[in-house]
Specification:
This protein is an alpha/beta fold and about 260 residues long. It has 2 domains: about 190 residues, P-loop containing nucleotide triphosphate hydrolases (Rossmann fold), CATH 3.40.50; about 70 residues, no CATH class. About 35% of the residues lie in helices and about 25% in strands. It contains 7 helices and 10 strands. It has a 6-stranded mixed sheet, sandwiched between helices. The chain has a 4-stranded antiparallel sheet with strand order 2-1-4-5, covered by helices on one side. A hairpin with a 2-residue loop joins strand 4 and strand 5. Helix 3 crosses helix 4 and helix 6 crosses helix 7. It is globular.
Length: about 260
C-alpha cells in the first residue's frame, strides 16, 4: 500500500534573516526549521529580542528573508496573501468606520461584492459576540472589543492560517482571559492553523497544541514542548498539576536564554 505524505500547512526550512548592511549587518534569525500541521495551534515564546515577531512577520509576508524556504500548503510565500490572516497587538482599525465597516473594508479589498460583504461581516461580528456594537466606531469600543473586531476582520476572508502577534498583550487580566476563551472556542469550531506569539507562558500553555521556545543570539529554535492537555480547555485548567509542571519547564527553558543575555 502506498502512503501519501501529508504536506505541512506551514513549512520553514533553513530560514535566515539579517538586518543592516556591511559591517553593521546583524543576523536575527538562524537556520529556522519549523512546520505546522493543518489545524494545529502553535505558540512562539522566548526572551525579548529573540526574533519571535520578526519570524511571524516573515510568515505573514511583511518581511523578506535572506535564505532558506517558506511555504504554505507546499506553495512558496512571496508576500502577503489572503491565505494568512494577521492580528497584531495594536488593533489597526480604521477610526472612521464602524465595527461592521472595518470588517467589510477587508472583504472589499479581498474582492467580495457589496451584499456578500455585508452578510459575511455580520456573521463574523456575531462570531466574536459584538452584534450589539456592529454600528459602533472604534472610539466607542473598549480594548477587548477592538481586538474582537480585529479578529473578526482577520477571519472574514476565510484564511487558511491565523497569525497573531501578542494580540492580548495590552488588555487587562480579566479581558485577556475572556479573549483567550473566545479564541479557543473559535479555533475549536472553525479548525484553523494558528501561529501565536506571546510573552505569557501561561497563555501559551492554555491555548496551544505545541510551544516553541526560541533561543537568542541570533534567534533560533531552542526547544519544543507538546501540550498534552485535554480539550476543550477550561479556565480552571491552569490549576492542574500537569499544566503547572509544563509551565515551569517552559519558563526554565526561557530563563536559560535570559541568563545568556545577562552574562554577555
Amino acid at each position: 500500500m502506498t502512503v501519501t505524505a501529508t504536506v505541512p500547512k506551514l513549512q520553514l526550512s533553513g530560514l535566515n534573516k539579517s538586518f543592516g548592511r556591511g559591517d553593521k549587518r546583524i543576523q536575527v534569525l538562524r537556520d529556522i526549521d519549523l512546520s505546522l500541521a493543518d489545524n494545529e495551534f502553535v505558540s512562539l515564546v522566548g526572551t525579548s529580542g529573540c526574533g519571535k515577531s520578526t519570524l511571524l512577520s516573515i510568515v505573514a509576508g511583511l518581511e523578506d528573508f535572506d535564505s532558506g524556504t517558506l511555504s504554505v500548503d507546499g506553495a512558496p510565500v512571496t508576500g502577503p496573501g489572503l491565505d494568512r490572516g494577521v492580528v497584531f497587538q495594536s488593533y489597526t482599525l480604521l477610526p472612521w468606520l464602524t465595527a461592521q465597516g472595518n470588517v467589510e473594508f477587508a472583504l472589499k479589498a479581498a474582492g467580495y461584492g457589496a451584499g456578500e460583504r455585508r452578510d459575511i461581516a455580520r456573521e463574523h461580528i456575531e462570531l466574536v459576540k459584538l452584534t450589539k456594537f456592529a454600528n459602533a466606531y472604534p472610539s466607542e469600543l473598549s480594548g477587548g472589543m477592538k481586538q474582537r473586531v480585529a479578529i473578526a476582520r482577520a477571519l472574514s476572508y476565510r484564511p487558511k492560517m491565523l497569525l497573531m502577534d501578542e494580540p492580548f498583550g495590552a488588555l487587562d487580566a480579566l479581558t485577556r482571559h475572556q479573549m483567550q476563551e473566545l479564541l479557543t472556542r473559535i479555533w475549536e469550531e472553525h479548525r484553523l492553523t494558528v501561529l501565536f506569539v506571546t510573552h505569557d507562558v501561561e497563555e501559551a500553555v492554555y491555548l496551544s497544541d505545541r510551544i516553541v521556545v526560541m533561543g537568542i543570539g541570533p534567534g533560533c529554535i531552542k526547544q519544543t514542548f507538546d501540550v498534552d492537555l485535554s480539550r476543550p480547555r477550561e479556565p480552571d485548567s491552569a490549576s492542574s498539576a500537569e499544566f503547572i509542571d509544563l509551565q515551569r519547564e517552559v519558563l526554565r527553558s526561557i530563563r536559560e536564554e535570559s541568563l545568556k543575555v545577562e552574562l554577555a
